[in-house]
Structure to design on (363 residues):
């Protein structure tokens, strides 16, 4: 593992990875700023077309010469019951009337342009590609390796991490239950709702099970927390919510403000907005519809898309998907590059306080 680890972490001086947050937050400005500051910036290709992804890659290259990554969603199997989706649509009819919009078409598509995006990333390589919602085929990983791209895959359990290792990936992203946004489970099983593992425990479990570098993700907002996951065996930490409030983030202004608003004191995992478990700030929509949302991704995501857009346009955070990790109250309104610097300073101070620990960047 040592050679693979050093090759990967040599890409970014600081052990800080900016999480790819789909839906707008993780755009070219944010990715470039993080990479320029010594972290690993990421673009989120989820919910974008392949051409949209390519255009953003070009923008990042125009802003920085540092390495960066692109995140891709795996296609989802057809398992949702149409009756359950239809029933949920009936429940949301009042929301559509309130926001003066129509519900979206549930059957809008479920592969997120995966094959086209992978082909584009092989044809015009980027330094790192990560995968969410499953494990890419070994042939995909091999194709990326042939063009010099590192492949990272999210796992939420030891079993998923073992599948990542079998696929030949270069590192596993250990996503703890504290993480904001969608849980990257490989199979969406409703019976597992609420059974997530905390990031520190998950990192330790995965480190003992697989011979791969581990990137820890989930609720990490301070350099001291980065020191903790490194001490637990991670090679780097992935932070999403911490970068959500930065000026370079493409998140809606209402979303940014809600992170530290006393009206939103905590988060919950919910299927209300997308049909898949995702952690967000508790608001009216989540409270009223979360208990009844079916396990149907991406059908529910497509169904609620117009509602979420209309709520944002109306300036109503109570109808928006306010994705956030458990540490959201610690969000800091700093430029992304400065935030990387502050996190690195906090990490160095925390590491120096540990007997026998060396300070510095990625290990």
């Amino acid at each position: 593992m040592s050679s693979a680890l050093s090759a990967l972490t040599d890409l970014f001086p600081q052990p800080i990875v900016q999480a790819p947050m789909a839906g707008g937050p993780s755009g070219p400005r944010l990715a470039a700023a993080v990479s320029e500051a010594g972290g690993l910036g990421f673009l989120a290709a989820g919910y974008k077309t392949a051409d949209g992804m390519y255009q953003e890659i070009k923008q990042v290259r125009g802003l920085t010469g540092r390495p960066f990554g692109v995140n891709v969603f795996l296609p989802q199997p057809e398992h949702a019951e149409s009756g359950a989706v239809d029933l949920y649509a009936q429940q949301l009819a009042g929301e559509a009337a309130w926001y003066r919009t129509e519900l979206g078409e549930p059957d809008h598509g479920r592969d997120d342009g995966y094959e086209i995006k992978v082909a584009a990333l092989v044809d015009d390589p980027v330094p790192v590609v990560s995968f969410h919602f499953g494990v890419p085929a070994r042939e995909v990983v091999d194709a990326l390796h042939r063009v010099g791209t590192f492949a990272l895959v999210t796992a939420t359990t030891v079993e998923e991490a073992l599948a990542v290792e079998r696929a030949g990936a270069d590192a596993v992203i250990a996503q703890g239950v504290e993480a904001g946004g969608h849980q990257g489970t490989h199979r969406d099983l409703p019976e597992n709702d609420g059974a997530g593992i905390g990031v520190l425990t998950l990192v330790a479990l995965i480190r003992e099970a697989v011979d791969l570098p581990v990137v820890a993700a989930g609720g990490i907002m301070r350099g001291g927390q980065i020191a903790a996951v490194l001490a637990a065996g991670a090679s780097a930490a992935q932070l999403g919510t911490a970068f959500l409030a930065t000026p370079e983030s493409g998140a809606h202004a209402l979303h940014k403000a809600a992170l530290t608003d006393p009206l939103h004191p905590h988060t919950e995992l919910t299927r209300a907005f997308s049909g898949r478990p995702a952690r967000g700030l508790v608001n009216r929509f989540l409270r009223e519809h979360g208990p009844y949302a079916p396990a149907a991704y991406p059908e529910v995501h497509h169904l609620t898309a117009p509602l979420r857009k209309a709520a944002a346009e109306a300036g109503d955070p109570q109808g928006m998907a306010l994705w956030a990790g458990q540490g959201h109250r610690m969000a800091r309104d700093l430029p992304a590059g400065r935030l990387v610097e502050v996190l690195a300073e906090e990490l160095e101070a925390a590491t120096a306080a540990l007997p026998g620990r060396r300070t510095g960047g990625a290990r």
